Amino acid sequence: MKEIIFQKIADQTYFILDEHMASSLPKVFVAKYTASRNPQFHAKVFVFLKFCFDHWASDRQFMDESGQFDVFRRNLTVLAGFYDSYHTISGEVRIEAKSLSYARMNEEEFKQCYTALINAAVRTIFKGCGKSIEDKLISFF
């Protein structure tokens, strides 16, 4: 999360300050913000994940499909190499998928993750698939 420091000069007029300028003034304001990601690209990634899930799940049945989709999404994210690992109390290593949320991944990392998700899906889920599935898959590149 980034910060911006500013001083109010007049009604609805603000002056952005650097840290050195701000340290010499008695009253400044600090605003925290996160840079926005492209929402269309974010949606495209989730359409891709749903496409992958539908292909993978076509011959399976689940009690809770939305819950299974979430598990699938996290598993594919781990296979793509976007995960954190932790040591448990029992000494085992626990691997958790990184969050794809706006607040936890910047645009550049999200683009890298998308490329890695495609590669992981091609290696595992779409290995040996037919021409029609390949054509649909190519539309995501």
In total, the number of domains comes to 2
**How many strand units?**
5
Q: Roughly how many Å apart are the termini?
A: 30 Å
pLDDT under 50 segments (min length 5)?
none
Elements, N to C (H/E): EEHEHHEEHH
Radius of gyration from the CA trace? 22 Å
Oligomer: single chain
Architecture overview:
The chain has five helices and five strands. It has 141 residues and is an alpha+beta fold. It has two domains: 2-33, no CATH class; 39-138, no CATH class. It has a three-stranded antiparallel β-sheet with strand order 2-1-3. The chain is elongated. The two termini are 30 Å apart. The model has no long low-confidence stretch (mean pLDDT 88).
Which structural traits does this protein have?
two-stranded antiparallel ribbon, 5 strands, 46% helix, 2 domains, 141 residues, 21% strand, 3-stranded antiparallel beta sheet, alpha+beta
Give the helix/strand layout.
Layout: E1 2-10, E2 13-17, H1 19-23, E3 29-33, H2 39-57, H3 65-79, E4 83-87, E5 93-97, H4 107-124, H5 131-138
Antiparallel strand pairs: 1-2, 1-3, 4-5
Helix pairs in contact: 2-4
